[in-house]
Specification:
Layout lengths: L4 E8 L5 E8 L5 H12 L4 H6 L5 H16 L3 E9 L5 E14 L5 H4 L5 H12 L3 H6 L4 E10 L8 H15 L4 E6 L2 H9 L3 E6 L1 H8 L12 E7 L2 H4 L3
Parallel strand pairs: 5-6
Antiparallel strand pairs: 1-2, 2-3, 3-4, 4-5, 6-8, 7-8
Length: about 240
């Protein structure tokens, strides 16, 4: 069975190259490619991972890579890719990945469940726990929701609107899978702007400096200019039924 295509679009890169792109489900046969995109770009750039020092310890990188691999294979995980659209219909080069995990009151996300070996992963887990959306779920009186696990775009294809397309696909997946909401910890300016464009609701602000002092880590102000915000999209199913 072929993977579902959520959207197709075209964009002009900064070098003048017009690219035709597709947002579609991650094929099981390409999970390793998706994981590697996380390793090559996300591990060394994402706010919390940088603060926890993941990329400075090969053992932490290996441990987190295992976690990501297991998560993308988990039936509770829904992952989509952005790939170059090919005329033969086959999945082309993967240039972006967006994943989310189905979270319930009895099944928290993998980051909280995992057995952490390295100091860096222990620190990362503590940081993530402070920004957990589980309490928000209770306030909204919903029993389950999709929580963002991570989204990454290859540097050569950034500023093409891919992150916005990823967020649209997350909302459409909620409707398709009968999940009432999706939320994510938006840890970079690009994802925050994309969420604002799609009218996601900000439900929690996280002060990076205060969080850093609590766990003895440093968030670089030169890189992260704004407070990190948890953005939670409460999906109205009716809004998408006509699409």
């Amino acid at each position: 069975m072929s993977e579902r295509v959520w959207s197709t679009f075209q964009a002009m890169r900064s070098d003048g190259l017009l690219v035709r792109l597709s947002i579609q489900d991650l094929p099981k046969t390409r999970i390793d490619d998706g994981v590697q995109l996380f390793v090559d770009n996300f591990f060394s750039e994402e706010t919390f991972l940088v603060a926890a020092g993941i990329s400075r310890n090969p053992e932490a990188i290996a441990e987190l890579k295992t976690l990501v691999t297991e998560s993308l294979k988990d039936p509770a995980c829904h992952s989509v890719i952005c790939c170059e659209k090919r005329v033969d219909g086959k999945v082309g080069r993967i240039i972006g990945v967006s994943s989310m995990i189905l979270v319930t009151e009895v099944r928290p996300d993998n980051m909280q469940d995992m057995k952490r070996k390295t100091k860096e992963l222990q620190t990362l887990s503590q940081l993530m726990e402070d920004a957990s959306l589980l309490n928000i779920m209770k306030k909204l009186n919903i029993s389950h929701f999709y929580e963002g696990f991570g989204a990454v775009v290859h540097p050569e294809f950034r500023r093409l609107g891919i992150m916005t397309e990823f967020l649209k696909a997350r909302c459409l997946a909620c409707v398709a899978h009968n999940v009432p909401a999706t939320g994510a910890l938006m840890t970079c300016i690009a994802s925050q702007k994309a969420a604002e464009k799609e009218n996601w609701e900000t439900v929690l602000n996280v002060d990076l400096q205060e969080l850093g002092r609590k766990y003895g880590v440093i968030f670089d102000n030169k890189i992260y200019l704004k407070p990190i915000r948890d953005l939670f999209s409460y999906v109205c199913v009716d809004r998408f039924l006509d699409l």
